[in-house]
Amino acid sequence: MADLNFKQLMDELSLYSLCTYFVLPLVGVNKNGFGAEVNFLNSFLSRDGSLIYVEVYMREFLGMGLPEHRVCKDDNGKDYLEFKIPQKFKGDVALFMAGKYSEMSETVKRIIRENSTLQYKNLKDTTYRTDVRLLALEKSQVLRDYWNSQLWDLPSQSHIDEDMELLSKPNDSIFLDKELFLSKDLISLLLNNLNARTCRGVFGKGCVLPERKY
174-190, pLDDT tens digit by residue? Predict the structure, then answer.
């Protein structure tokens, strides 16, 4: 774990909102599914947790196969895609918004592991590595020990109780409060996506911790 730079980890964790990894996969897509790699900018939740919004650089870069959505703009002309989160995940999204990540259902955790693009048990050399956000889903002792080693100067000061979550509760920055307007091109875009299919994630680079060595 000494090879994991703490500042780089903090920068990586703040790059995208946590709902990008823990909620967006629940609608059948991940951040790699919006055309060119740089087209995905970030994702946000509605205040009631029923909708997730993806801000994109240019909607013209969007490819085929996105799940059903609406295309919107804000008053500054920025493009957003609005996805409705399935009702069956309402309880899990509420737990996410409360910062109770480890209490989310096993079904949702599996979807996150498989489709979020975060590394999960990725074998490198002789070590399995998993992104810290996925470790937090399970309240991993590996991650708990890492936080203890980084956040306190002396071992005697280290104290993260076992019942504590290992990632902070989402703050207000995950919510999209600005008014959005329906795009005039909505009908044609929906017609282009009638054959929407689930976009499954691929492992991507991120902030990982070694879990197990052989």
Answer: 999 888 887 655 445 45
